[in-house]
Amino acid sequence: MKRDVFNAIADPTRRSILISLTRESQNVNGLAEKFDMTRQAVSLHIKYLQECGVITIKKEGRERHCNLEVEKLTEVADWLEPFRKMWTGKLNQLDELLGELQSNPKKQL
After folding, report:
1. Residue among 100, 39, 98, 84 nearest 64 (CA)
2. Are 55 and 69 in contact (CB under 8 A)?
3. DSSP code of 62?
4. Which of 23, 46, 82, 86 is deepest in the core (most CB within 10 A)?
């Protein structure tokens, strides 16, 4: 089954794993210790993230290190951009209105 980046961020545990990996590459055991679930459950989330292409796993001896693939997450940022622009515009309009009301307190809505 083909998974995409939106599948990756759909689950709160997977989002937490991704946030943990923004700081540094981590091994699977280290990640599993951060969650109140079995190592096997965390491993399934990691496998899912790998299938989505948002992390890669590199074997180093007996350990498996997870690395964040930031480029893949740009799909989410690109998808969110029109919404960011819309809300930025609306908040700027609100800021202007509040500025007008503060400079002219007698002005009514």
Report:
1. 39
2. yes
3. T
4. 46
